[in-house]
Fold:
Amino acid sequence: MMPAHAALAYWLARDAHASARALDLGAESLRALAATRMRALLVDAQHTPFNATRMRDAGLTRPGALRDLELPLALQSLAPVSKQELSTAGDASLRHGRVSASWFSSRSSGSSGEPFRVYYDARAWSMLKYLVKMRSRRAAGMRLTDRVAILDAIDPRVEGSSLLERLGRLKRISVFRPPEEIAALLAAYAPDEIYALPSALLEIAHAAGQDTPEVRAKRICASGELLTSRASRDITEAFGGRIFDVYGTSETKEIAWECWAGSRHINADVVHVEILGGDGACVEAGVEGEVVVTLLVNRAMPLIRYRTGDRGSLLSARCECGRASPLLGVVSGRDADMLELPDGSILSPYLLTMALEPIAGLVQYQIAQTERDHLRVRAVAGNGVDARALEADIACALGAALAAAVRVSTEIVDRLEHGARAKVRVVEPLPRSAAREMMAAR
Ligand SMILES: [Zn+2]
Structure:
């Protein structure tokens, strides 16, 4: 067997051209390529004990089942799986039920805080981790010679240790450093592109306005958190250049990327996206639901109808950039971020963020539901902004968005609290009541 990195180099070279070309395929060719890959995935997934059971239960292991049925319909006969279920399945979710030395893996945090690891074969890793990202960045105007800065949830002691960093093409900076320090490091490096969480960019923009040097970049790729239009505007103003929203998860890598025309194109040749309503059925274009994805290219640990936990929609429109790949609407937040109000109604966190967006002088904020009828807002004020006036503006804006039965209290802070992997949870609801959970599970 080839060593993992030799295999990676082989697949990078072999698939680079086809992967780049897939971006410009017509709708029909793209659908055909995705269907071929989906069929191959479902056939091969029978080598993973966990998926073999799922497929047998759904009747998909009968001879001809994957030929006779329309493929997306065949896929829909499998129940979606959560991170929790895969975690519980353990090695049974792997091809032949065991880890291979030739695989790559990435780790994310599980729902109860324990790490969750996804394995990828070398070809899948080459496509998902490198080729798919490179082609969308190039389509957005990036050149191979550009200087790239990545703000990452790493220990500052491992900064500079990777091969690309030693070659000077890339700089990783720990988001655990104080924002003034990050701003100074960025200003000294003078990147063409910055990759970061929106919350980290906002903190640096805020810090950079004071005694630290100015940071400029031609392109900024934001991912990992909800990118509100307000945050997008503030980041663009602070760094200059253009911001691109990238949607993905640590398990699936990049799902959709923003083109110059401002649409989010789904990487439909490597990932199949479905949007499910409360009853578990696919909803129409334009309707928001849970984002469920199937990674078409990974054989090591097939993710088939994987529940991302995010809420979003598909769009039926064609993009003016001319690319035929399907478009993803706004991903409005995690399913777990929906708020249950005292009368049992459910409120999208998006309505709250939209209400706060227009407030001048509000740099960053976090909303926590501490009781069914109480929201606590932590807010970071802009330089020279009157704290009292800001509190009043927040109370007024949320009051208009909420039923009268919900109370709001605001606290002005210097810095927000970070969660796992340095992410800031913009809206943190109380766990839903048992009755509500049962409704959601049906
Ligand atoms: Zn486009």
Remarks:
- The domain at 4-127+249-334 is CATH 3.40.50.12780 (Rossmann fold).
